[in-house]
Amino acid sequence: MIEMQDVYKTYPNGVVALNGINVRIKQGEFVYVVGPSGAGKSTFIKMMYREEKPTSGTIMVNGVNLAKLKDSKVPLLRRHIGVVFQDFKLLPKLNVYENVAFALEVIEESPKVIRKKVMEVLDLVGLKHKIRSYPNELSGGEQQRVSIARSIVNSPKIVIADEPTGNLDPETSWGIVELFEKINDRGTTIVMATHNKEIVNATRRRVIAIENGKIVRDEAKGEYGYDASYV
Amino acid sequence: MTLHTFKRHVRESIKSLGRNGWMTFASASAVTVTLLLVGVFFAVMFNINHFAKKVENDVEIRVHIELTADSRQKDALRRQIEAIPNVKEVRYSSKDEELKRLIKSMGDEGSSFRLFEQDNPLSDVYVVKAAHPQDTVKVAKQIETLPFVHKVNYGQGTVEKLFDALKVARNVGLVLILGLLFTAMFLISNTIKITIFARRREIEIMRLVGATNGFIRWPFFLEGLWLGMLGALFPIAALSIVYYNVYQVYEQRVSLPFFELLPFSPFMWQLSALLLVIGAGIGIWGSVMSVRKFLKV
C-alpha cells in the first residue's frame, strides 16, 4: 500500500515539483499517472521508490515512512518494489537470463532458487525461448518484457513503471499493458506513468492526473487527460 | 556474505578487467611506472640505510690514557667511563696492540713503523662504544673531562657530518617516495573513475534492484586489488633482475671494504612483497575513492 500525505518537493535549484500531494493507493490496485511533461509526474513516481526524498510530508510504502528512511535501508525497500523504465535499463553485456538473474544475485539468492525463479518469470513474460539472447538482438517490446521480468522476479508487492510504452509502437504497447494486467491479477499493485491516451481510455482503470505539482483529478475508472478544460 | 556471492564478486572483477581491456592496461601501467620508481628509490634507500647503520655501529671513541697513569688509575678510569650513561662497552688496547694495528693499517709502508717497536711512543687506549651511535659525541665530551685522559678521538667533525648527511638522504628519499605514491594514487583513481563512469549504468541498475553499497563496492574493490598487483609484477621482475646483476658485479669486481650491498635474498623478497602490498594498496584506494561518489543515494 502507498500513502502520501502533504508531500512537497522543491529541488535545490528552486523548482517546485510537488506542491501538496495527498493520495492513497491500495494493495492490488492498477493506477495510471498522467500529466504533461514537467508537471511533477516523474518526481511523484520517484518518491515511491525513494529515488527522491520529499522536502516535507510523509510517504508510507508497505508500512515504512520513506521520508524518514535511512539511506542504508533503501536497498531493502527496493527489493520489495519492482521498477520499469522507458529505456528498459538492461545491461547490454548480459544475456536475457543473466539480466533477470541479476536482480536475485544482488540480494544473494542461492543459484538454485535463482534458476527456478528466473525461468518462472521468463515463462510468464513469454521469453523462455530467448534466454540466451542479448538485449541488442531483441525488439523493443521484448527488451521491455525482460525488464518487467527483472522487476517482478523477487515477487514485489508493488511494480512502478515510468512510461514503459514510451519507446514502443502501439501494438507492442498493448502487449506490455496486457502483461502488466496479468501481473496485477496476481495481486501486485501497479503504478504506471504514461502518455498513452488510447490505452488509458480503453482499459478504464484508476487515473491520477498531475499538473503543476498537484493532483488535479483522481477517478476510479478514468480517462486520459489532465487539462482543467478537458475534464 | 555467502560463498556464492564472493565467488560472483571475484568472477565479475576479473571479467571486468578483460572487458575494460585498455583501461586495465592504462591503470596497471600507472602502477607499474610508479612502482618502478618507488622500487628503485627503496632499493637505494635501504642500501643507504644499511650502510649508515654499519657506519654508525663502527663509530667508536678512542680514549688515549696519560702515559703517567699506573694500572690502578687506569682501572679507576675504566670504572668511571663505564659509569657514564649510554656506554655500551669499554675495551682496553695496550700501546703494543695499538702499534700493531697501526702497522697493519698502513699496509706495505707499515713496516717502516717497526722501528718504534723498541720505544713505543703511543699511549694505551680504551676503546669505547656508545649504546646508540647518536650518543657518541655526548659520551666523548664527558670522557674528555675525566682524569688521566690524554686525548679523546672519535673522528670529530667527520662523524657529525656523516650523520647529518645520512639524515638528509633518508628524509629526501622518504619525501620523494611519498610524493610518487600520491601521484600514483591520483593516476589510478582517475583511470578507474573512467571505467566506473562507463559502468555507472550498471551501478544504477544494481541500486534499483536493491543492491547494498557494500555489494556494489566489492567487485570494484577487487578490481583495484588486481590492477595494483598486476601493475606490481613488472617492476618486481625488472628490479629483481637488475638488482641481482648489480649485486653480482659489485661483489665480484668492485666490492669496497666499507660499503656492502644488501644481499639479494632476503632483501629482494622483502622489497617485492613491499611493492606488491603498495601496488594493491594504491589500486584499492584508487577504486574505492572513485566508486564512492556513484554510491551517494
TrEMBL record, chain A:
It is a peripheral membrane protein. InterPro entries: AAA+_ATPase, ABC_transporter-like_ATP-bd, ABC_transporter-like_CS, ABC_transpr_LolD-like, Cell_div_FtsE, P-loop_NTPase. CDD domains: ABC_FtsE (cd03292). Gene3D superfamilies: P-loop containing nucleotide triphosphate hydrolases. GO terms for biological process: cell division. Keywords: ATP-binding, Cell cycle, Cell division, Cell membrane, Membrane, Nucleotide-binding, Transport. One of its GO terms (molecular function) is transmembrane transporter activity. It is found in: Cell membrane. Residues 2-231 form the ABC transporter domain. NCBIfam families: FtsE (TIGR02673). Belongs to the ABC transporter superfamily. Homodimer. Forms a membrane-associated complex with FtsX. Part of the ABC transporter FtsEX involved in cellular division. This is Cell division ATP-binding protein FtsE. The gene is ftsE.
TrEMBL record, chain B:
InterPro entries: ABC3_permease_C, FtsX, FtsX_ECD, FtsX_firmicutes-type. It comes from the Bacteria. GO terms for biological process: cell division. The keyword Cell division applies. The keyword Cell cycle applies. It is found in: Cell membrane. Belongs to the ABC-4 integral membrane protein family. FtsX subfamily. This is Cell division protein FtsX.
